[in-house]
Recover the amino acids of this structure.
């Protein structure tokens, strides 16, 4: 008696989950246009970003040379520098215990 075996390959579509996020319309429009300029759909860009995020456990942002800080940010930086020079900034701490002790001493 002869036995015959057949190997069957089953192709299955990958399962996908839908990710819903709230984003302002201008950012979405600009992201879609940029992805299109690169010749790919926005979903591919987002998927690549998420995979990189999982792999590295980091989020990187780029500060391109042609980008300028907002007026609000410029004012906040100037105020922080002024406060630091005038000694109005809090000290730095090496651990949480020292930070909590400082806050308690301040009555906070």
């Amino acid at each position: 008696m002869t036995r015959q075996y057949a190997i069957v390959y089953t192709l299955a579509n990958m399962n996908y989950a839908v990710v819903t996020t709230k984003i302002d319309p201008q950012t979405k429009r600009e992201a879609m246009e940029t992805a299109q300029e690169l010749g790919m759909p926005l979903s591919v860009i987002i998927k690549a970003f998420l995979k990189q995020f999982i792999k590295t456990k980091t989020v990187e942002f780029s500060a391109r040379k042609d980008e300028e800080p907002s007026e609000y940010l410029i004012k906040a930086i100037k105020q922080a520098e002024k406060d630091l020079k005038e000694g109005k900034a809090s000290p730095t701490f090496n651990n949480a215990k020292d930070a909590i002790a400082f806050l308690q001493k301040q009555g906070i």
Summary: The longest helix spans residues 42-56. Residues 6-10 have pLDDT under 50 and may be disordered. The chain has one domain: 25-105. The two ends are 88 Å apart (CA to CA).
